[in-house]
Design goal:
Chitinase A, domain 3, globular, alpha+beta, 4-stranded antiparallel sheet, 43% helix, 3-stranded antiparallel sheet
């Protein structure tokens, strides 16, 4: 199955990752009830303790909403116009409402995790991030989390995951006839294109803030030379990638998956691609290159010189089809369950009502000197728009069309987590 990783893959929704999408906007919910907002407050100004919405009487505060906006806007929310900020708040709030609805369902079904499970998940997150406990705590505080609120959010996400596991446990494995029909209806996707499987150690010269050791090209070059010497000394590539790479692929030991030659050309210089695709290049060959403002130490793990048609008997193909069909059904079932839960809940959206009551107070002008934020106020709560989402991506669930080779950018993936509990961004993941 490893031979197919990253190549001509079916829409294969990793179950754990999907459950995380259903479970979370990565932001916790403060549990203290707050008073509803007054009707004459301007939509652009809010009180942190103001109640943005209630779900079956449970309050969601503006403090939660604005912390979520800040994280999704990557600190550029100050550049939003009042109109953009109001839109961002409404979209984030919808995700928080969905999360609260699902958490209350999980609580009703007796799906709450134990204290030991919560502590175990928090410890797992610390280990997965490869940073010290002090650095983890520092990032948590910088993001506005206290130990109590962070723990409560982890509890919510674990509970929702348990609920989804229970809901989707009724899904049966697809019949052989369904697997065969899927394969024969999508043969064009099961072609392993000429290309290579690569691993990478990425050094980013840009300054990403506290904890970043490579803040310019000089420091990046020094770090790169240090890593190359370690590799020449026989140290393991994957271990060094986990320790030094400034890219999410570090979590997989630098593995970028299989990339077609065309995909490699979209990311790396032609000379580097030619070197990697040279039939004389041995497996294990390393190439050093610069692309997208970053330095790459690439390792050749597999090389395919001609397109190869895959069959259901090819290693891993039948299992991938099976997993895809099962996980898509689980996603559709979960989305449907959430839709029903939302329709049954008593939801009071005070923030939306405030906008309706004050439609002419929303200026589209940004603050003086502020350029358009990179996120462009795109805080959509659908799973398709953000991995920090509370809403299942029903479009993906219905779409079982295979997707061909992923691009190198898409290979920059994180390790699938058992939950989507909140975590601060690791300094190395730029």
């Amino acid at each position: 199955m490893s031979e197919l990783k990253g190549v001509n893959r079916i829409v294969q929704i990793n179950t754990e990752h999907f459950l995380g999408l259903v479970a979370a906007v990565v932001f916790g919910v403060f549990l203290a009830a707050c008073s509803a907002p007054s009707g004459n407050t301007s939509p652009g100004t809010v009180d942190a303790n103001e109640t943005a919405a209630k779900v079956n009487g449970k309050a969601i505060t503006m403090e939660q909403v604005d912390r979520a906006v800040k994280q999704q806007a990557k600190g550029e929310e100050s550049k939003f116009s009042p109109l953009e900020l109001a839109s961002a708040r409404l979209q984030v709030l919808q995700g928080l409402i969905q999360q609260e609805v699902m958490y209350q369902k999980a609580e009703k079904e007796g799906m709450l995790p134990t204290d030991e499970e919560i502590s175990g998940e928090i410890n797992k997150q610390k280990v997965d991030m490869h940073i010290s406990a002090d650095e983890f705590d520092k990032q948590m505080k910088a993001a506005g989390w206290s130990d109590k609120t962070f723990r409560e959010s982890v509890k919510q996400n674990l509970a929702i995951n348990k609920l989804i596991d229970k809901i989707t446990s009724r899904i049966d494995a697809p019949k052989d006839s369904e697997i065969d029909a899927f394969y024969h209806g999508n043969k064009e996707a099961f072609v392993k294109k000429r290309g290579a499987k690569l691993a990478a150690i990425v050094i980013d010269p840009s300054n990403s803030g506290e904890g970043d050791q490579t803040t310019d090209e000089q420091s990046a070059a020094l770090k790169g030379n240090e890593i190359v010497k370690k590799l020449q000394g026989g140290q393991d590539f994957a271990s060094l990638a986990r320790e030094y790479s400034e890219d999410q692929s570090k979590l997989q030991g630098g593995d970028l998956g299989y990339l077609s030659e065309d995909e490699m050309k979209q990311t790396f210089p032609p000379s580097t691609v030619a070197e990697l695709m040279n039939p004389q290049s041995p497996i294990g060959k390393m190439a050093i290159t610069q692309s997208q403002g970053k330095f790459f130490i690439l390792k050749l793990q597999e090389q395919v010189q001609q397109d190869e048609s895959l069959t259901l008997e090819s290693p891993g193909v039948r299992q991938q089809v099976t997993d895809s069909l099962v996980n898509n059904r689980k996603q559709l079932l979960s989305a449907s369950y959430q839709a029903v839960a939302m329709s049954e809940a008593k939801i009071e959206n005070f923030l939306a009502k405030k906008v309706v009551d004050n439609p002419n107070e929303l200026s589209g002008a940004r603050p003086a000197g502020a350029s358009a934020p990179a996120s462009n106020a795109n805080t959509s709560t659908t799973a398709n728009a953000s991995s920090n989402s509370a809403a299942p991506n029903t479009n993906s669930a219905a779409n079982t069309k295979p997707v061909a080779n992923t691009k190198p950018a898409a290979a920059n993936t994180t390790k699938p987590a058992s939950t989507a509990a909140p975590k601060p961004a690791a300094p190395a993941n730029k």
